[in-house]
Design brief:
Order of helices and strands of chain A: HEHHEHEHEEEHEHEEH
Strand content of chain A: 15-25%
CATH topology of the largest domain in chain A: Rossmann fold
Strand order of the largest sheet of chain A: 5-6-4-3-7-8-9
Radius of gyration of chain A: 20 Å
Distance between the termini of chain A: 40 Å
Helix content of chain A: 40-55%
CATH architecture of the largest domain in chain A: 3-Layer(aba) Sandwich
Number of domains of chain A: 2
Number of helices of chain A: 8
Oligomer: homodimer
Largest sheet of chain A: 7 strands, mixed
CATH superfamily of the largest domain in chain A: NAD(P)-binding Rossmann-like Domain
Shape of chain A: globular
Structural class of chain A: alpha/beta
Largest interface: A-B, 65 and 65 residues
Number of strands of chain A: 9
Chain lengths: 210, 210
């Protein structure tokens, strides 16, 4: 199944909304309600769900629990996926604290840094190791995905250790775009880009007199 | 000019690479080199630059300084844009520290929280105010854009204050998608979604035996 990346992102977002509905005891939701929460059209929601083969819209709308399980069957691996954070500055710590106890299929099980003040300590129960031990800890913890929240300057030097350790996916928050060989997924999410995009859209809005 | 959002993101990324080249004394760069750094095709780079009307490719490649200035004329406002951060937990502090001294047209000039341990203090020279004073500080600092890095639960309650204060753009890092009336740009960047996307792509890679 070849699902566009934007649809994958929306499925993840729908699921989070559905989980929140489920917690509140809401059993059914109409496509136009789900659409309104996400600021998109009902057509878009129905198209996304059609794409993954979900089509049990009833008079009461989608069954929340059934749809959660269906989306999970698409997005999630069967086993929990172990994640490591490289760079335990504020961003690395924010990501680690954000994840703990969220009940996701992804879990941060190790952190890495080179700062002696951080190595040997824990953040929210996640131990921080020295980068010198990266390969062995990755193997020991069966880590598949890494988050890069190191200083940007350090990012290019991490490519070889990441490849050598057999990492399969990289979420790169530094401002250095990184390339990896086929077989390793990399998503570059530079925060500066997000800011500059919002700023440009605001400028355009103002120029068009919106 | 109607530029696709993905092109805007790439222009921001190209510029950052070009700035780094410029610092190193590199005066010219070929489209295929710029493309390789960003893991895309030279055709894509040329298409993006054609879209903004830049076409001064020479035998030596693009003039780095000229291209930086051209992209800046598209992306940047003439005046620096003031940004505020709402929620000074780890993520808010990470964003603030990340921005200081980057020499961007965007600058974080105020932060907000409700925690008495944070209000009245500074992070990297940025003062933290109580949310009770949001409207007046926004006006005083001429703030146009806010970053939401508050706990997700608090996000829906921030919509009205943001509208009332006349904010024009919102970069929402919480896991609650937020809707605003036309005239206010909102970009929802839930970190969970980024993780779930990478995880899905890794899973798909493994299934296809890549």
């Amino acid at each position: 199944m070849n699902i566009p990346e934007k649809t994958i992102e929306r499925l993840s977002e729908y699921r989070r909304t559905l989980l929140s509905c489920h917690e509140k005891g809401i059993t059914h939701i109409f496509s136009h309600v789900l659409a309104a929460i996400h600021g998109i059209t009902a057509v878009q929601v129905r198209r996304d769900l059609m794409l993954i083969g979900f089509s049990s819209d009833t008079k009461k709308g989608y069954d929340v629990k059934v749809l959660i399980d269906f989306i999970s069957s698409i997005l999630d691996s069967e086993e929990p996926v172990n994640v490591a954070v490289i760079g335990m500055g504020h961003l690395g710590q924010a990501v680690t604290k954000y994840f703990n106890g969220k009940g996701l299929k992804l879990r941060i099980t190790a952190a890495f840094d080179i700062d002696p003040d951080k190595v040997g300590h824990e953040v929210d129960g996640v131990p921080c190791y020295h980068m010198d031990h990266f390969e062995e800890i990755v193997e020991e913890h069966d880590i598949h995905i890494v988050v890069l929240s190191s200083p940007s300057k350090a990012a290019p030097g991490l490519v070889i250790p990441i490849i050598n350790a057999g990492i399969k996916g990289v979420l790169n928050f530094t401002s250095r775009p990184l390339n990896f060989p086929p077989g390793i997924v990399v998503e570059n999410y530079d925060i500066t880009t997000l800011f500059e995009k919002v700023s440009y859209l605001v400028k355009q809005n103002e120029e068009s007199g919106a």
